[in-house]
């Protein structure tokens, strides 16, 4: 069954140019005749919003090119206006990528649009970007990221008081709850959304809420209530000419007929089981035809998988595998991985009935893998709040420990400061004692030095006296020698007389 996530493909609102009842031809005429660039820009954006699925992408491409051109040449006066228009065109481009299954390209375009909207502080546009990116994350199976972006969009919309957009956010969050198995919570969000939509009198969005409420009733096996909701939704969508949404609702109506038992009264007419199944197949085929016309890969996958399931129920296993294989290939190549679990399960059962063990085993393994992946994701989601609480408590405990540690550090620091003070005082005391000791030693040394100096002086005096005495003795000896020499003959005299004696 298919749940509608609301993605905003169209953001440009020009009150003086457009309304839902305005003829497209009027806008086309304005586009041809106007010489005012701003009005031309508004007209292109409005046509991108109001034109049918075959025409609007071309107008959006023109809007993007024209906005880029004006941003390169204009003054800052109109910068915000053309930046907003460019962001809107990029948002529409992302929407188109999403329809074609180009999910990574869709995210890239949405992100570029978001950055421009942040630059000019366009809060309404920012909320739309968050919403659209959330839808892409959901298609990719990144549920936690999708919820994060949906909640960001809802927060801004509540701040701005945008009732219509609040209702859309409630739908998208409800879809997340439904996909995770919390049908009661999903129904609560859908009913809240429907109430707001009925208050503002907008036909388009109640059709979506009715569609999703019908899916919840179908899951509860309240098929009569489910069919009533889907028929109301289909009627509104036919009035609006919204073929894409008609195809989605037709799938859901077909599933109600297919899953109803022989005795289940779900319509004003009591159909037999074969008649119910034929009506189911007719709904699926009509849905597939519309989706192929629009090249809506998402719708094609859902319709073909439903046809696969129909043929399994009617024991036409070859036709079942044929449609299932086609759905599987499109799903695998386009990035709509969320449908692989259902498709692989249908293919596994059909191949098993045909006795084709290898193919049955292949798709059973794929089914088990995707089932376990989703269950693991559900487990992580169910523990998300507990994890958040745990992280908070962990942080609080850590903060408490930090405070205790800081207190301990402060006390240790204070104790250390006291110790340092005591050590300082002790050091000063020791220095004082040492200083007194040194002064005392200095005085002792000084006294000893004085004594030594005195002794040295005394010794010098004694030395001088001895030297004087020695000098006196030497002088006395020399004097006595001179006296002696005066009485004795000289050497010359002795030698002369000795020579004479020898010669005789």
Please characterize this protein's 3D structure.
The termini are far apart. Helix content is 83%, strand content 0%. It is elongated, with a radius of gyration of 53 Å. α11 runs antiparallel to α12. It has 504 residues and is mainly α.
Oligomer: single chain
Please bin the fraction of helical residues.
over 70%
Question: Cα-atom Rg, whole angstroms?
Answer: 53 Å
Question: What kind of sheet is the major sheet?
Answer: none
Pick out the low-confidence regions: 1-21, 378-404, 486-491, 497-504
Structural class given helices, strands, pairing?
mainly alpha
Q: What share of residues are in beta strands?
A: under 5%
Order of helices and strands: HHHHHHHHHHHHHHHHHHH
Shape: elongated
Overall pLDDT: 78
Number of helices: 19
Task: Report the strand count.
Answer: 0
Separation of the first and last Cα atoms: 178 Å
Q: What's this, in brief?
A:
By secondary structure, the protein is mainly alpha-helical.
What are the SSEs and their pairings?
Layout: H1 24-33, H2 37-50, H3 56-73, H4 79-99, H5 103-119, H6 123-139, H7 143-160, H8 163-179, H9 183-200, H10 204-219, H11 223-240, H12 243-259, H13 273-294, H14 297-313, H15 317-334, H16 340-354, H17 357-382, H18 384-487, H19 491-503
